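User: Show me a protein chain along with its predicted structure.
Assistant: Here is one chain, sequence first, then structure tokens.
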Amino acid sequence: MATILYARVSTAEQNLAHQRVQAEAAGIVIDDMVADHGVSGVSTTLAERPEGKRLYDMLRRGDVLVVRWVDRLGRNYQDVTDTIRHFMRKGVVIRTVINGLTFDGATTDPMQAAVRDALIAFMAATAQAQAEATKEAQKAGIAAARESITAYRGRKPSYDGETLAQVLERHRNGAGALTIAKELGLSRGAVRRIVENPEAAQAALARWAKEGV
């Protein structure tokens, strides 16, 4: 039995290493890591990605697939639910670093299975909703940036679009600024600025992107 971490980042500028660091900090012993760098979770399914498709051959019954959160598998509801259920049918256990959830297809109790499936559906829907919210925020941010493109760009943001979406999601789920900051490697001030004015935070990203920095 092996424990395999699947990591993904959607842009070439993002770093994959922190996903393994987070997993190991949560006490998970990783035997192997499979990673897709600069690959979108919206436009490509796991099976279509260069490294993601390797998981379908690598994983065996009894293995554990670790992901930071289900959005690493994908940002599309149907794709994520199909992927998780496929691996569960193979006897693979899926674990998330964030929230410490475990999805195991071995349960025979109908109530436990119903709760598990409902949670899978909810998390997959949340992953898609995050992607759609980020897209809308980016549109609003770009529009705001274009209106004030001659203004000083300000300090370069310490976060990217994906991290911004994660901050907002954790805040909606009741996490405090300090907790979010520790989990995502941001300052508490940065978290507060994002939460208090997400449009301005996205606009800051757009201003820097506009200048090609």
